[in-house]
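Subject: for your reference before the review

Hello V.,

The reviewers asked for a structural picture of the protein, and I figured it would be easier to keep everything in one thread rather than splitting it across files. Below is the amino acid sequence we used in the manuscript, unchanged from the supplementary table.
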Amino acid sequence: MTMTGRMVGKKALITGGAQGLGSAIATMYAKEGAHVVVTDLNGEGAQASAAAINSVYPGQATALQHDVCSEAQWIEIVHLADKAMGGLNVLVNNAGIGSLGSVESESYDTWKKVMSVDVDSVFLGCKYALGVMRPHGPGAIVNISSIAGLIAASNYAAYNAAKAAVWLLTKSVALHCARKVPGFRCNSIHPSFINTPILNGIAGAIASQEEAHTKLARQIPLGHIGEPDDVAYAAVYLASDESKFVTGAELKVDGGISAM
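And here is what came back from the structure prediction:
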């Protein structure tokens, strides 16, 4: 895999990077010439993800164990990332969890956990990264929301609410950056069904992965679920200088669901 240079000079912190979208985004960033710090609550998984990147792009990746719900850890992590890469100018808030449950069936404990992982982490990341990023612009924040943040379902109460919060928080951060943090932008990505571990929970009680994918694909106009790289390519565009006039926007990577 040859570097193509779309992100040369970018130094990116990617949360939830042990697997799925986070790992795919980190790998794609390294391919495009960026240095990356991969973080995850699963520290060993983050190490494995960084090692896989470094096996192809030597010296491009560093791993850190990271609880994205911890304010204290966010303060520490952004400074560790800055030190590891000699700067920080891209933040990808990717870490997240899903939950199936209606407003009546969802437990309050699960509601609070989803909000903490999916929303509080994005707030904390943006809050504490911007001060460290400011001297190293231009750059960008990319928040991974979901098509579930734009289109509701009866059994996604917590997930719908959390991802909708990420969507509008992104716009608020974008306007703040435009006024107070010159050279920095903030946008959100809204995937639909992507072939990642989180899909297992969203699919519900279906007998097999193949059966789940087939069922979900029937809801997508393009007729199939997405792959992690579909989102990673979008994340490259939004973090690179190619999107220098794009901020406060939502990029739907949804196979056409939102067009229905």
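For the response letter, the relevant points are probably these. The CA atoms of residues 111 and 158 lie 5 Å apart. Residues 108-133 form the longest helix (26 residues).

Happy to draft the paragraph if you're swamped.

O.
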